[in-house]
Amino acid sequence: MAMNKVNLFLIGFPRCGTTSIHNYLGQHKDIEVSDFKEPHFFCSDIHILSDLKWRKKYFYIRDFKTYNQLFKFNKKYSVDCSISYIYSEDAASNIKRYNPKAKIIIIKRSKKDFIKSMIRKDMKHIFPRGYDYNLISDFDQHIKMWSNYFDPLILEYEDFKRDNQKFMNNIFKWLELEETGLKKVRLNASGIRDNDSLYRKVIDTKLFCKIKMRFPLQVAKLGRMLNVR
To answer: Do residues 79 and 25 lie in contact, with contact meaning Cβ atoms separated by under 8 Å?
Structure first.
């Protein structure tokens, strides 16, 4: 029976198939996904750091009323897929207070392949972000932090690439749900939906940032209309 709290979190790592897995989860009859893929609601420490640098340009889901409106809470599981949580020092404790019975899924991959993928993504930006690749690829450190609060399901991205259906069925079994046939998720070569790049260029303008801070749910609905997650 559904509860009025999000009870399943897919928290990363980045470049590990979370977008595809998020969309596959949404195909199950007993799972609902949020109106857009990454609410980033529980990483309060990252909000603060972002605000200091960007003046509230990002992370525009800031209160429970708005967050809850992203979900209908009419299925057994409601899913928040926000990869920022895996790196947040606050997210695990915030989620534990919010829902102590929440289930956590973490996807990791070969460290070498992860760093290569992050570098390729970073180089697509006009001004590369200059990640500390050793820090963000220290999977054990971040998983240990989450394991202090939850007993997460930890899976390998390589297994997902090898057999999508088998991988998802293992998740469904862990969630005590029946297996289900999945429709293939079609992504473009960069790993995101075709409309995503243009959409994100628009929402990063100063004017649109002001609009999305005031009307976050309407921005989410626009993303859905454009088939963006």
So the answer is: yes
Contact at 8 Å (CB) between 197 and 227?
no
Q: Is there a domain that residue 101 lies in?
A: yes
Q: Where are the beta strands (DSSP E) in the chain?
A: 8-10, 31-33, 77-81, 103-108, 153-156
- 177 near 31, Cβ under 8 Å? yes
> pLDDT for 114-156, tens place per residue?
999 988 877 665 445 667 888 899 999 999 999 999 999 999 9
For the record, the structure tokens of 46 come out as: 């990252």
Question: pLDDT tens for residues 11-63?
Answer: 999 999 999 999 999 999 999 998 778 999 999 999 999 888 877 778 889 99
Cα distances (angstroms) measured from residue 79 to each of 29, 36, 147, 206, 210: 13, 11, 19, 30, 27
Give pTM, 2 decimals. Answer: 0.81
Q: The CATH number of the domain where 88 resides is what?
A: 3.40.50.300
